[in-house]
């Protein structure tokens, strides 16, 4: 009896964040007035759209590197792939595959840089990867705004050659001849993966589309993660996540393994961003990647993950709950107070707030453990 | 001579020298591309005055070992509350500005105290948490700006009748009350202009903070920042010192944004303060501060270098290349500086 009570208590405490959000949604859904058919469709679409990005966060967490705010690097690499593919007008699945092929090496290089930078900032990986995201964003903007174009911005003297990455489609390039436009229509790629194999299910009076092909890819990736955890490399990462010093003295190449974790995460994020954008259908060249990191991290944390522990279940629960709130809160705010803007800001607050709370809880716990072990040394405990 | 130069380079650090040289070359290049040096110089001065106190707000927390104050928006919010309250009560001129400060400071102390209680429980991870505490507080205030019972017609939305506007003009209230105090020249005539009053205030603040760090409490704070274990062993209440430093940083943030607004002429609400910590962080690092050591010289040099680049790049680079690269340069320089400070080897083993 006591056992069961204890079990329930433990379950409630360890899943307190998702439970709070379920309660919040249960309160907000009827207020918003959305039909259940609409919400189920939205959630299925958004799960397909975002899960891959969120899944890419799992491996660095396993390696004890915290939440990889540097995943935006991968997102940028993916976008460069999409820009080039759109310019060459390769459409459909081949276009997506080509975009992935282009972005993988870019993401690998960026991930390698990120891994090296993070190795120089052990113990503050999160803030460093966060700032690195901003820094690389500057370089991305430099490349996309000045180096890509029909004509170059800079001319090499005496040769008549431009310094540029050639893009010829005038619909992509700003009228001045270089620089990519702010909004790009991914016409040929739109829903290319989602529509490859789609399944329609009647739900009440509505019909719900399930993008089976996207889900198949996500499922494949989940299997990959489960398999990866059992490999030598995966075990090494978990050992490093437990204790870097112990892992080092048992002969694991700590720095190298950490770099690999970040490289994998960045490459997967590039892939995730391509899946994300093919579903959206338009790309904001300068903003799309900005919120990718924050939204993915917030979703993962809402799913009950912590800075040091995250599972595949956390990803799906998190994406569903986060986006449920995303859809519902503006309407609920409007019904409740008469201002949709209020719900909008509430949504922003939750995204930031949940990250803040998760980080505080994690750091607090670690701090207390450290204090306790020190007390033990002093012999008071 | 060579040894001296080497020593200087070592002290200043390569990034700082490169950026310093870059700034100097911008000033040299300016007349060649028909950019008025005097105007740019007074623009730089105005911006140094505007941002100086915000950069200064980094110092106490850095000194006490709380790291860079990415939670600056918290102080800014206190300042914004002071500013909006003063306009609500139609307080004008220097007195109005003083009233805004009077309202802002207690709010900043309260917010800073709460902020410090959070940071004292998460030692070692202050920076990331500070960032998100700042972000969340901005989002909370977004809701508050919509709901708070302000009703001055210059501040609320014209059509809805409730909720504050995104930008509120401080004209007719206390715009330029500090800047134009004993000012040299005028900012509208296009001649050389020095916002003397703003600099008097800035240097007063610098002096006060400098003086504070020479008192018993100030020394204790520095000790906590340099070596918390040692500080504790010598009987210093570490958490109390950290709390004082965080409150001080938050108060300076509140005062800083008020100085900024009186010069800028507008109060920016809602998402306005979201990223305001980053330029201030970059500036103090550019001035030679590290993650746990900062001086008044760092503040002055850093603000001048950073704001100098911000004013000079748009005008010079644009006329040189016929395209606006200033934004990209700003992003790369400021975040590159922060990244450099976070990854310095000496910093990692503190």
Can you put this structure into words, describing what you see?
The complex is a heterodimer of chains A (381) and B (350). Chain A has 381 residues and is mostly helical. Helix content of chain A is 69%, strand content 7%. Chain A has 14 helices and eight strands. The two termini of chain A are 31 Å apart. The mean pLDDT of chain A is 85. With 350 residues, chain B is an all-alpha fold. Chain B has a single domain (13-341), classed as ABC transporter involved in vitamin B12 uptake, BtuC. A two-stranded antiparallel sheet of chain B has the order 1-2. In chain B, α9 (216-226) packs across α11. The two termini of chain B are 33 Å apart. The chains are: A mainly alpha (381), B mainly alpha (350). At the A-B interface, α7 and α14 of A face α7 and α14 of B.
Keywords:
heterodimer, A: 381 residues, mainly alpha, ABC transporter involved in vitamin B12 uptake, BtuC, two-stranded parallel sheet, two-stranded antiparallel ribbon, 14 helices, 8 strands, 69% helix, globular, B: 350 residues, two-stranded antiparallel sheet, 2% strand
Ends of chain B: how far apart?
Answer: 33 Å
Give the domain tally of chain B: 1
Radius of gyration over C-alpha positions of chain A, nearest whole angstrom: 23 Å
Widest sheet: strand ordering of chain B: 1-2
Q: Rg of chain B, please?
A: 20 Å
What is the name of the CATH topology of chain B? ABC transporter involved in vitamin B12 uptake, BtuC
Structural class of chain B: mainly alpha
């Amino acid at each position: 009896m006591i056992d069961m009570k204890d079990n329930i208590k433990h379950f409630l405490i360890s899943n307190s964040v998702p439970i709070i959000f379920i309660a919040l949604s249960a309160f907000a859904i009827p207020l918003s007035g959305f039909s259940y058919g609409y919400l189920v469709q939205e959630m299925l679409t958004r799960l397909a759209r975002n899960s891959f990005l969120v899944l890419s966060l799992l491996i660095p967490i396993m390696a004890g590197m915290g939440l990889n705010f540097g995943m935006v690097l991968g997102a940028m690499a993916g976008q460069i792939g999409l820009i080039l593919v759109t310019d060459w007008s390769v459409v459909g699945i081949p276009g997506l595959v080509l975009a992935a092929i282009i972005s993988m090496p870019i993401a690998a290089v960026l991930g390698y840089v990120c891994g090296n930078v993070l190795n120089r900032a052990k113990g503050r990986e999160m803030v460093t990867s966060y700032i690195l995201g901003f820094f690389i964003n500057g370089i991305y903007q430099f490349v996309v705004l000045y180096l890509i174009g029909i004509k170059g911005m800079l001319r090499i003297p005496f040769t008549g050659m431009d310094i540029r990455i050639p893009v010829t489609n005038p619909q992509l390039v700003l009228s001045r001849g270089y620089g990519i436009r702010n909004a790009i229509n991914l016409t040929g790629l739109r829903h290319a993966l989602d529509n490859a194999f789609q399944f329609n299910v009647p739900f009440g009076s509505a019909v719900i589309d399930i993008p089976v092909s996207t889900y198949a890819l996500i499922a494949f990736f989940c299997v990959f993660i489960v398999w990866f955890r059992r490999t030598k490399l995966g075990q090494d990462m978990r050992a490093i996540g437990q204790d870097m010093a112990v892992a080092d003295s048992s002969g694991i190449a700590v720095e190298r393994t950490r770099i690999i974790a970040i490289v994998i995460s960045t490459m997967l994020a590039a892939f995730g961003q391509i899946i994300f954008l093919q579903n959206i259908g338009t790309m904001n060249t300068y903003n799309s990647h900005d919120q990718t990191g924050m939204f993915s991290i917030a979703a993962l944390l809402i799913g009950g993950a912590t800075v040091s522990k995250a599972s595949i279940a956390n990803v799906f629960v998190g994406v569903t709950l986060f986006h449920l709130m995303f859809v519902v809160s503006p309407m609920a705010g409007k019904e409740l107070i008469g201002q949709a803007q209020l719900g909008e800001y509430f949504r922003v607050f939750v995204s930031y707030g949940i990250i803040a709370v998760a980080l505080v809880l994690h750091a607090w716990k670690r701090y207390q453990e450290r204090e306790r072990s020190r007390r033990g040394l002093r012999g008071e405990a | 001579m060579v040894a001296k130069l080497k020593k200087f380079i070592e002290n200043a650090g390569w990034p700082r020298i490169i950026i310093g040289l870059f700034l100097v070359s911008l000033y040299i290049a300016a007349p060649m591309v028909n950019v008025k040096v005097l105007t740019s110089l007074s623009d730089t001065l105005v911006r140094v005055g505007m941002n100086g106190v915000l950069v200064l707000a980094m110092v106490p927390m850095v000194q006490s070992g709380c790291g860079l104050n990415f939670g600056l928006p918290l102080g800014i919010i206190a300042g914004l509350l002071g500013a909006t309250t003063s306009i609500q009560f139609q307080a004008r001129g220097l007195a109005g500005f003083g009233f805004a400060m009077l309202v802002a400071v207690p709010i900043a102390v309260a917010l800073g105290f709460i902020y410090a209680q959070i940071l004292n429980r998460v030692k070692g991870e202050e920076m990331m948490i500070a960032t998100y505490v700042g972000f969340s507080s901005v989002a909370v205030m977004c809701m508050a700006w919509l709901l708070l019972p302000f009703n001055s017609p210059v501040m609320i939305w014209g059509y809805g009748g409730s909720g504050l506007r995104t930008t509120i003009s401080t004209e007719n209230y206390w715009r330029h009350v500090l800047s134009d105090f004993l000012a040299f020249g005028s900012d509208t005539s296009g001649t050389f202009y020095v916002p003397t009053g703003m600099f008097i205030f800035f240097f007063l603040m610098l002096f006060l903070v400098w003086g504070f760090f020479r008192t018993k409490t100030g020394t204790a704070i520095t000790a906590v920042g340099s070596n918390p274990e040692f500080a504790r062993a010598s009987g210093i209440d570490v958490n109390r010192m950290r709390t004082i430093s965080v409150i001080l940083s938050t108060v300076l943030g509140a005062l800083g944004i008020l100085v900024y607004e009186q010069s800028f002429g507008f109060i920016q609400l809602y998402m306005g303060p979201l990223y305001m910590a980053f330029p201030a962080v970059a500036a103090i690092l550019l001035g030679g501060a590290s993650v746990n050591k900062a001086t008044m010289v760092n503040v002055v040099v850093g603000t001048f270098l950073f704001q100098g680049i911000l004013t000079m790049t748009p005008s010079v680079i644009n006329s040189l290349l016929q395209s606006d690269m200033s934004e990209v340069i700003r992003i790369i320089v400021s975040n590159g500086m922060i990244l450099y400070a976070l990854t310095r080897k000496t910093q990692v083993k503190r």
